[in-house]
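Q: How would the structure tokens look for this protein?
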Amino acid sequence: MCLSIPSQVVELLPEIQSVTVDTLGVKRTVSCHLMEEPLAVGDYVLIHIGFVMNKIDAASAAESLALYKEIVDKMEAADA
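A: Here is the predicted structure in token form.
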């Protein structure tokens, strides 16, 4: 099973058909070669093995990010 954390587009790199995304504070460049719809700075996307797979709305991204934070908080509390 693969979990994809919503990532926010922070920079467009059309010359290499890629974007820079921020995933929980980590920035990286990923390919848009599999995307048909255009992306804009601020969009949320799901990534798989370095490729943007699809765009999701901000509300869905926020809900997913809140769940991930809850999971991490519980794991950290269990380790304490």
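The chain has a mean pLDDT of 94.

The beta strands are 7-13, 18-23, 26-31, 44-48, 51-56.

Upvote if useful.
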